[in-house]
Write a structure and sequence with these properties.
The complex is a heterodimer of chains A (105) and B (168). Chain A is mainly alpha-helical and 105 residues long. Helices cover 74% and strands 0% of the residues of chain A. The chains are: A mainly alpha (105), B mainly alpha (168).
């Protein structure tokens, strides 16, 4: 563990980041900024996993590996999401989520 | 105040300020830049807890890969000078309400819970330990998730190419 830094401070920073991501997910209407909010959320979760690993179970590496896998999943998710966004932009000329309801009715 | 404590609060300030700016700025390219700042500060935090491999992965994959991908898609789909319209009042209020109440709730929960720091000696996290655990099949082995994620990455790559390619 880190000298002089309590675990609660790290957790509060990461939960702030998480809820900033949630807030942006609700407020924003642009698909790319929604994707950025998801990256913020995933990053906050990664910090939590690493911190729990380091402070509470320093003799194991489980949190480290989970964070590693989350980064891999985030990369896959971002690539597929951006392919979808580019395809939607080609068809509808817009990436606002308000205009993507073609299949709804 | 010790130097590492100062460094931690500096990184925390960068994370907090830039994550707020990411979701409030009206220019989309600036939002991508602030996201990059958040991710680099996170990598700095991983260096502080001595997980060098994790910090390297964070810098290479997140800061180097995903942010570049996002910036490319911004350049392909919107004008650089494009500004967002102000969000509707009801949505703004609801978003801020959810964010603030969720943050308050989790902060109270974190402060109330008594964490018991482990006294076990810290494991040395070098490349050899990471490699043997990542590809091990016994106790503390992660060979199965490693293989599953490699299949997932292949599927995501093929799917992204097929979705994004131009139809006839």
């Amino acid at each position: 563990m880190l000298q002089g830094i309590p675990i609660t401070h790290v957790l509060i920073v990461s939960s702030f980041m998480f809820f900033a991501g949630v807030c942006g997910f609700i407020i924003r209407r642009n698909m790319i900024t929604i994707l950025m909010s998801i990256e913020l959320i995933l990053n906050a979760v990664n910090i939590n996993l690493v911190v729990f690993n380091k402070y509470l179970f320093p003799d194991q590496l489980q949190g480290h590996f989970f964070a590693l896998f989350v980064v891999g999943i985030a990369a896959a998710e971002a690539s597929v999401a951006i392919a979808l966004i580019i395809n939607i932009y080609r068809r509808l000329n817009s990436i606002s989520v308000d205009k993507v309801n073609e299949m709804k009715y | 105040m010790a130097l590492n404590v100062l460094m931690f609060y500096l990184l925390s300030a960068v994370i907090v300020i830039c994550s707020v700016l990411t979701i409030t700025t009206t220019r989309i390219l600036r939002a991508a830049f602030y996201l990059l700042c958040v991710l680099v500060a996170t990598a700095g935090f991983y260096f502080m807890v001595d997980y060098q491999f994790m910090a390297g992965v964070q810098l290479v994959l997140y800061a180097g890969g995903i942010v570049v991908l996002i910036i490319f898609s911004i350049l392909l789909t919107s004008h650089i000078s494009h500004k967002f319209a102000k969000p509707e009042a009801i949505r703004l209020v609801m978003g801020i309400l959810v964010g603030v109440s969720g943050f308050a709730l989790s902060t109270v929960a974190i402060l109330k819970y008594a964490f018991t720091p482990s006294t076990a000696p810290a494991m040395k996290v070098d490349m050899q330990a990471i490699g043997t655990q990542l590809l091990g099949t016994g106790k503390n082995g992660y060979a199965l998730p490693f293989e599953v994620i490699s299949i997932l990455l292949l599927a995501a790559m093929i799917g992204a190419i097929i979705i994004a390619k131009k139809g006839k």
